[in-house]
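Hello again,

I reread your note about wanting to compare the complex against the isolated chains. To keep things tidy I'm splitting this into two emails, and this first one only covers the full assembly. Below are the input lines as submitted, including protein chains and any nucleic acid or small-molecule components. They are followed by the predicted structure of everything together. The single-chain runs will come separately.
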Amino acid sequence: MRSIQVEQVSKHYRLGVIGRGTLREDVHRWVGRARGRPEALSHDGDELKRGDYIWALRDVSFEVDQGEIVGIVGSNGAGKSTLLKILSRITAPTTGAVRLKGRVGSLLEVGTGFHPELTGRENIYLNGAILGMPKHETERKYDEIVAFSGIADFIETPVKRYSSGMRVRLAFAVAAHLEPEILLVDEVLAVGDAAFQKRCIGKMGEVARGGRTVLFVSHDMSAISALCERVIFLDGGRIAADGDTDATIETYLAALHGSGPEFGEVLVTPAGTSDGEPITLHAVRTMDSDGRVRGDFKSAEAIIVEFDFTRLEPIDYLRIGFELVSARGAIVFHSFHNDLSEMLPHEPTGGVERLQAIIPAGLLNGGIYQIRPFLRRHRRGSGWILRDAPGPSVHVMLNVPNPDYMASKRVGVVAPMIEWKSP
Amino acid sequence: MTHPEPQSAVWTVIRPKGRWFDLRLRELWSYRDLVGLFVRRDFVAQYKQTILGPLWHVVYPLLTTVTFTIVFGRIARISTDSLPPFLFYLSGNVLWGYFNNSFTKTSNTFVSNANVFGKVYFPRLAVPLSTLGSSLIGFLIQFAIFLGFLAYFMARGAPVDPNAWALATPLLLLPMAGLGLGGGIILSALTTRYRDLTSVVTFGVSLLMYLTPIVYPLSAVPEAYRGIVMINPLTPIVEAFRFAFLGVGTVSVPHLAYTAVVTIATLFFGVLIFNRVERTFMDTV
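Full-complex prediction:
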C-alpha cells in the first residue's frame, strides 16, 4: 500500500539577500503588469539567465510503500534537506505534488520548540503538541517517553540546564512516541552516545515493523545500511539512483570519490609519484589468470594485480604494495611485494619492470573494490613515496560454488570459501 | 507495543500553491492543545527570572496612567468628558494595551519564530492565536485593577455611571482582538518580504494611539477632524467601553457595525495572506 507519492517535484530558491530593493522591484513589476507589459522576471528562462535562482530539486519522483524504511543519501547541497522540508510541509514545492498518507512526524534537528525556561515535563507536552500530538495522547505516553529518554531524574529541571545530549534524548523520545504514519528523520543520530544511537535505530526499526514508513537522511552509511532496505541517492537535486541499499550506497560512494571507478587498467600520472624519487609507477591493471585485462570478476576467480614501474637506481628497503578498499570505504587488506620474500632484484633492469600480486579465488565478498597502490621505503622516517593514488576498481560477483546456496552478497567484509571437514 | 492500524489515515496533498479560499480552520482546530500550551509557555516563560513577575502587568498601565494624568490632564488640560482623569486614562490604557500587545506581537510572528517554523510543521496561525490568549491574560489582570479603581472612585462619590452595557464587554473585546490579530498577521506576512516594516509597526502603533480616543474623548475632537478619528475602527470600541463602565461616551450602532465589518474583513484578508505566505516564507527569511 502506498504511503508517499512524490510526483515531479522541483524546488528553486532565490539566491542572494532578499529585503531592500524588493519592494521597488515588486512595485515595478506590478506597474508593468498593470500596463500590460510582459513580466520581465517571471519566466524561468529569464530567471536562470539572471543567475538569481538555484534548483534545489528537479523533477524528483518516487513512491514509498507503507512500512518501508528508505534511506536518502547524497553530498551536501544535493537536495536531501529540501526534500524533507517539502515532505514535512515546512516549505512548498515550486512545481509538482506530494501525497502523504496519514500523520507525518519529522525529526529535522531535534529539540525544536524546546523552551529553555520550561522544565523537561513542560517541554514534553509542548514538543508533543508542536509535533501534532493531542494532550491526552501525550499524557497516556508520558511515562514511556520519560523512561525512553533516560533522564527521569531531571524531568523537573529547566531544559536550559540540560546538556545537548540530554536535550536530544528527550526530543527523540517525544518524537519516537508520536506514532506518525510517516516518520522523517534527518541526522539525529549525530548527537548522543553509542548506546542511545543504538536505541534510536532500534526504535526506528520498530516503527517500521509496526506498519509505518520511515524516511531517513544520513551521512552515516553504516546507520543507513543497518536500517534501510532501499536507498535513494540524490545528486544535484535529481535522483541519481534508487534501489537496493548496497548497490545505491556503492553508486553514491563511487560518485563521492571522484569521477567514478575506472576498471581494468589505470595509468598513474607522473604527478602521482613525488618529484626526485628514483622510482616511477606507470600503470596498475587487473587481469584474470589468462592474462586478459578485466574489471569484472567472479569471487571464485583469482584476480591478478599487475604493477608497471621503472627504477633509476637500486632502492634500499623498497616496498611496493596496495590496499584494497571496499565501496563503503573499509580497507579490506594491505599487501606488499616482499611480504613472503623479496621478489624484486636489487639492481634495476633499466627498463619497465613488472610485478604481479595474486588475490586468491574464494576470498572477496561481492561488491566494488578499489585498488590503491603504494610505494614506500621501510625503516625510514618519511617512508611514503606514493600513497592514496587511485588505482583500478574491480567489480566482484560473489559465487558460492554450491548451487543450492547462491547469494550475490554476504554479510561481512570478506566472504572466504573456507574448507569444512567431517573428521 | 501495538500500533493502531493507520487505515483511517487521510491523504495530505502538498502542492506549490494552496487554494486561495482554503482557510484550513479544521486543521487549526486539531491543534487547539498547542494553542493552549503556547499561551502557557508565553505567560510562564515571560516572567521566569524577573523580580516583579506578572506584577509588570500592574505596574505598566498604572505608571502610564499617572503620566497621562499629569501630562494630558494637569498640564495640557485636555477634556475628559467630566470624568475623573485617572479613571478616564486608565480605561483607555487598559484597552489600548490589549490591542497594542496583540498587534505588535502577532506582527512579529514569522520573524521571531523562524527557527521553529523552519524545522517543524504545524498550522502557523496557532502562534498569533496564542499571542491573543496570553495578551488576554494580561488584559484581564489590568481590567481587574481598573474595576478596583472604579469601585474606589464610586465609593468616594465620583460622577461615574457603570451600566448594563458593561455586560457586553466580551463583545467589545472580540473586535479589539480581531483587529489586533488581523492587522498583525497581515503585517507579519508582509515583513517576511519587506523587513523595514518592522520599524514602521512600532512607530505606526504609537501614532495610531493618537488617532484613537485614548488621551481625549471623541466629543472633544473638533468637528473638522472628527471624521479622521471616526474612520479608525478602534474608536467605537474605546468609546463604548467608556460608556459602559463610566457612563460617558459617544457611541452609535452604525459606527459599531462599521467596526464589526472592518474587523471581519481584516481577519478574513489576514488569514488568507497569512496562509499564503506560510507556505514559502522559509525560503525568504
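For quick reference: Residues 1-8 of chain B have pLDDT under 50 and may be disordered.

B.
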